[in-house]
C-alpha cells in the first residue's frame, strides 16, 4: 500500500508560545488516491485524535478547509496528493490570521468585515408580486462574484490586509461588487460609504495575490477595480452605476 | 448563561429561514451552528428548487396542484397529502421572496426565473441557478440573517435538549472556540440540523451530516418517523461519492451501461433518465448486478458529451469542476463514472406542517424533520423547497406561540444541571480513554453495515444480519473511550460523543426496514417486491424507550385528494 508523508503545523495556546514553529510528522497509508482532507481524517482517527481542522462538505463548496498546503492556498478536500507534486505534504493554517488551534484560524474579523459592507440586496421599490425581472445579460454580471465560498484564502494572502488592520479585504469587497452590479439592487448611497472610504477599495494596490490564492479561480481584484471606477464616476458625474 | 426567546439549532436553509421569519415578527432569536451558516450542507445542493411558476414554455399550465400530485406519486403515496399540498402551494411565494432577497437564479430571455425538467415531474418546474442552486440560496439567506441582525453562535455543537416539565427550554452545546459546555436557554427551540447521510459509508452528504439533531430529539423522547426510507441518488461520483446533479440529466444527460446502451429504456421507457431517483438507482444497481457495469465493474456512465461544451459550461459548470477535480474526468470530453449513493434521509423528527412536535416548545424543520412531504421517495428539487417552506412555517409558528406571552420563567438551574450532566458523561468517556472502545472502529463498522445491509435492495436475512451487527455496535457504544477530553476545537470530542446517536438512528432504519414487509419507494425488498397498501400504507414511528432498544408503532397516512395507484413512468 502506498504511503503519504504529512508535515503538519501545530498550535495549542495552552502549550505553545504565539508564533512558535511546532510541526508533527505522520505517515498515512492509502489505496489508490488520497486528498489532503482524507489524510487529516486518517491522522485524527488513528494517529493523533487531538488534531484540529475545519471540515464540512468535502466537495469544495462550503469553504471550510482552506489551508496553506506546500506553499499554496488550497482547499484540503479538493487537493489530491497527485496535485501537490511533492514527497512530503506540508499543511499549515492560512498565514497572517490569528489561530484558534492547529489548522483552525480565527475568522471573526473576516466575517465582521463581510458584515460591514452590508452584504445583502437592498431595495427601495416595493417588491412585485412575482420575481423582479432580470435579463440573462444582467444575470451574467453576477457569475463570477456569486461563486465565492468565503473561505478566506484571498483575505489571508493580501499584503494590504497584513499591514492595514482596518482594510476590509478582497472577499468583502468582492461581495460589495456582487451587489453593486446586481440589476435588482437599489442601495445607491446606502452601501457605497462602506467601501468608498479609507477601509475600502482604495487600499487595494492590485498586487493580485487574491487572484492567485482563490481556490475557486475567482478574480476579486477585477471586482475591486470596478468599485474604484464606480466611485470615481460617481464623484465626476454623480452616477452610482 | 445566554438566553433567547427562540433558539434555532442549525444554520442551513431551514434554520436560517426559520430565524429570519421569527426575527421579522420581533422575536429575539439566536442561531446555534456547528459551522458558520454559510458553510452548511444546504450549499452543496445543485440542481434546483421546485415551484409551479409556469415560466417554462412547456410548463405554462403548471399548477401547485399538479406539483402536489407529482410529489405524492413520487412518494409512492406515503406522503401526507395535506402536507404536500401545503408545500406546493407555498412554493411560488417563497421562491419569489428569495428572488426579492437577491438569490441569483438563472433567467429565461424574458427575465423570469429559469426552470428545467427534473425527475418524476410532469412539467419543467425546477428553478435553478446554474448547478449551484443550494449555494446561491444559502448565501442569500445568510445575507438576510446578517441584515436582520440575528444573533449567531458559530461553531457551537449541540449535544442535548434542556427540558423542564416536559417542555423544551433550551439546549446544551460544546462551544468549539471557547472550549467547554454551555447551556443556552430559551422559550422554544427549532431543530434544523439536516440529514443523517453519514450513517452510510457511501454518501453524497457532508461530513457533518450525522443526524445529530434528530438523535438529540430522539434521545429526549421525541419520535422519529419513516427512518427506513433512505434515498440513494443515482449519480454519485464513483470514487468519492460526490453528487453529480440530477440537473445533468434534466439538461439531457444519458445513463449508459458497459454495452453502450441507454438502459433506462428497459425500466422507464417514457421518462428514461428522468424517472424518479428510487427507480433510477434500482435500474443502475440492477445493471451492475447483472454484469453490465462499465467493464463489468460496479459503475455506469453519465454521458454529457452530446450536450456540447457551451451548454455544459453555461448550465453545469459546477459538476464539470467536481468531475475534473475529484474524478479526473472532463465531462466535455469523457463520460463520468457514477454509482448510486446514499443521498437523503426521508425520515426524521415527526412534525406537523408548522414544525410542531409532540414536545411543547420543540419544533423541527428541514431534512432532520419528517412532515411528511417526501414519503417513501423524495423528488429532486423538493428538498430545497421543503427547507424554505417549512423553515418559514416553523419560524412563524414558534413566533406566534411566543409573541405577547411572558417568558416561561427562569430555567438557569435546569441549564446548569444539564451542563453538569453533559460534563459528567464526557468525564466518564474520558476516564476510559484509550482503554475504551475505539469510536472510529465502531463508526467504520456502522457505516459499512448500513451500506451493505440496508442499501438499494433489501432482503430479510441480509437485514437481520445487519441488525445483529448494529446491536453489537450499540453494546460497544456503552464502553467507548474518549482520548482527548478538553480544549478548544476538539474534533475528537465531537466525533466521539455523536457516535451513539448515529448508531441509535441506524437501529431505527434497520428495525423499520425489517418490519416493513413490502416494497415502497426507496424501500425495495427482493422478498416482498410489491407495495402493500392494505397493510403498509402507514408511517413508521420509532421511539427511544428509557431502558434502551427501539420501539416501533405506526400512524396513518393523510390521504384524501389523490387516490393511490400504481407508479408508472
Describe the 3D structure:
The complex is a heterodimer of chains A (241) and B (569). Helices cover 31% and strands 14% of the residues of chain A. Chain A is built from 9 helices and 7 strands. Chain A has helices at 36-47, 81-84, 108-116, 136-140, 153-157, 159-163, 169-180, 209-213, 220-237; strands at residues 3-10, 22-29, 66-69, 72-75, 88-92, 99-101, 104-105. The radius of gyration of chain A is 20 Å and the shape is elongated. Chain B has 569 residues and is of the alpha/beta class. Among the domains of chain B are: 233-340, Alpha-Beta Complex (Flavocytochrome C3, Chain A, domain 1); 412-532, Fumarate reductase/succinate dehydrogenase flavoprotein-like, C-terminal domain (Methane Monooxygenase Hydroxylase, Chain G, domain 1), CATH 1.20.58.100. Chain B is built from 17 helices and 21 strands. In chain B, helix 1 (13-24) runs parallel beside helix 11 (382-402), helix 2 (64-74) crosses helix 3 and helix 13 (439-453) runs parallel beside helix 16 (499-515). Chain B starts with a strand and ends in a 13-residue tail after the last strand. The interface between A and B is large, with 59 and 58 residues.
Concise structural overview:
The complex is a heterodimer of chains A (241) and B (569). Chain A has 241 residues and is of the alpha+beta class.
Judged by helices, strands and strand pairing, the structural class of chain B is: alpha/beta
For the record, what is the CATH homologous superfamily label of the domain at 412-532 in chain B?
Answer: Fumarate reductase/succinate dehydrogenase flavoprotein-like, C-terminal domain
| Secondary-structure-derived class of chain A | alpha+beta
Shape of chain A: elongated
Average of the residue pLDDT scores of chain A: 96
Q: So how many helices of chain A?
A: 9
Helix fraction bin of chain A: 25-40%
E-strand count of chain A: 7
**Mean pLDDT of chain B, rounded to whole units?**
97
The CATH class label of the domain at 412-532 in chain B is: Mainly Alpha
Strand content of chain A: 5-15%
Using only CA atoms, what is the Rg of chain B? 22 Å
Shape estimate of chain B? globular
The strand line-up of the biggest sheet of chain A is 2-1-5-3-4
Instruction: Return the CATH class of the largest domain in chain A.
Output: Mainly Alpha
Determine the strand fraction of chain B and express it as a percent band.
15-25%
